[in-house]
Amino acid sequence: MAKDVTLADIAAKVGVSNVAVSKALSGKPGVSDELRARIRQVADRMGYRTSSSGRSAPVETGNIGVIVPEDYYGYSISFYGQLYEKVVKALYDHRYYGILELLTKEDEQEGNIPKVLQDGKVDGLILMGQMDESYIQKIVRQSELPVFFLDTYMPSIELDTVISDGYYGTYLLTDYLIRKGHKRIGFVGNIAATDSIADRFWGYRKALRKNHIEFEDGWEIPDRDRYAKIYDRILRQTYNLDSYVCNCDFSAHVVIQNLESMGYSVPEDVSVVGFDDFLPAGVRTGKGQITSYSVDMKQMSEVCVGSLIKKIRRQNYHGGIQIVTGRIVEKSTVKNRI
Question: Partner of 21 for a Cys bridge, out of 7, 111, 182, 285, CB 3.0 to 4.6 A?
Answer without folding.
Answer: 7
